[in-house]
Write a structure and sequence with these properties.
Blueprint lengths: L17 E3 L4 E4 L7 H10 L7 E5 L5 H4 L2 H7 L4 E4 L1 H8 L2 H11 L1 H6 L10 E3 L5 E3 L4 E6 L8 E5 L4 E5 L4 E3 L4 E3 L8 H13 L4 E4 L3 E4 L1 H21 L2 H4 L2 H11 L11 H25 L1 H17 L1
Parallel strand pairs: 2-3, 3-4, 4-5, 9-12
Antiparallel strand pairs: 1-2, 6-7, 7-8, 8-9, 10-11, 12-13
Length: about 300
């Protein structure tokens, strides 16, 4: 994983770009335009030449994961861009994607930098079961929607490693904090199903896009799922006035979610960044509840808990 001083203040321990040293090499989640220099510096340090990179593997097309992919396609002439069928067209023509990203992330999107288009002939569709052969390892594509419709994960069955993208939320190692990553257009039910799909494969190690990797994966699935279910139950329990008041809803989550109490351990710039993204995650949850109704969300939680009890 590439680690470097972030180009945006407060973004330490946030964007993880993984370089897989195979024949050919692969780069998993190339990151945004603003961090591309760090990727190139790391490849030079590893003595990897541009024509040795055979794949740019994307878990999804959000800007912090894929913003630099168009630029990278120019730099790595042999690299295929592996991306969900639901995201591919937006990389070939990123104008709408960039516009919607600016609308949601505002100044953060400007700090990341813009998308550049990817040549259509370089795109490989990341359909369920597709295998990426790197010589020293084979990665299998898992379709894992929820965080976004176009989200996939990559599984190394031999090592039992999973590159989970944003499916398991965001982890901040320095304060051992986990937070949901549930932006607008969240599909909560699909996210829970995707987590169970990954869990059933019994991975040994989880590689987070944000940030780093952890072992004892089963415990991490429990921790992530418990937090998601807590958020859903909490928000569905609010009265209508509180549910429509994001500030009040966030206050209740702070009171009930022990993970969020760790925010106070962060330095001001980092805490400000996390609070911004927590607000984005809350917006995604609230939008989902308004779209499908709190009764359906409560039913999803009940069915999931019954399924856990039956295992």
């Amino acid at each position: 994983m590439i680690e470097a001083t972030p180009p945006i203040p407060g973004f330490e321990e946030y964007i993880g770009v993984y370089v897989l040293l195979g024949k050919p090499c692969a780069i998993l989640d190339i990151g945004p335009y603003s961090s591309m220099k760090h990727v190139l510096d790391a490849l030079e340090e590893l003595r990897i030449k541009p024509d040795q990179v055979g794949y740019l593997l994307l878990t999804h097309i959000h800007i912090d994961h894929a913003g630099a992919v168009g630029q990278a396609a120019k730099i790595f002439p042999k690299a295929k861009v592996v991306v969900s069928v639901y995201g591919a067209k937006h990389l070939v023509n990123p104008e709408k994607l960039w516009s919607s990203t600016l609308q949601v992330l505002k100044h953060v999107a400007e700090g990341y930098g813009p998308y550049e288009p990817v040549p259509e002939e370089r795109v490989v569709l990341a359909n369920e079961g597709l295998e990426i052969d790197l010589g020293v390892a084979r990665l299998r594509v898992l379709e894992t929607p929820g965080h976004a419709r176009h989200h996939v994960s990559y599984f190394d069955a031999e090592r039992r490693w999973v590159f989970a993208g944003d499916s398991l939320g965001v982890y901040i190692p320095s304060v051992d904090m986990l937070r949901p990553d549930t932006p607008p257009r969240l599909d909560f039910e699909a996210l829970l199903n995707s987590l169970e799909k990954i869990r059933r494969l019994q991975p040994r190690k989880i590689f987070y896009a944000h940030f780093g990797w952890v072992e004892e994966a089963e415990a991490w699935f429990g921790r992530c799922l418990n937090q998601l279910l807590l958020w859903a139950e909490t928000l569905c329990s609010l009265d209508d006035s509180s549910l429509l008041n994001a500030k009040r809803a966030m206050q209740v989550l702070h009171e009930r979610d022990s993970e969020m109490k760790k925010l106070g351990k962060l330095k001001p710039e980092r805490r400000s960044k996390e609070e911004f993204f927590l607000g984005n995650s809350l917006t995604g949850f609230l939008d989902y509840i308004q779209r499908v109704g709190r009764e359906r969300v409560s039913g999803i939680v009940e069915r999931f808990l019954r399924g856990k009890a039956g295992r």
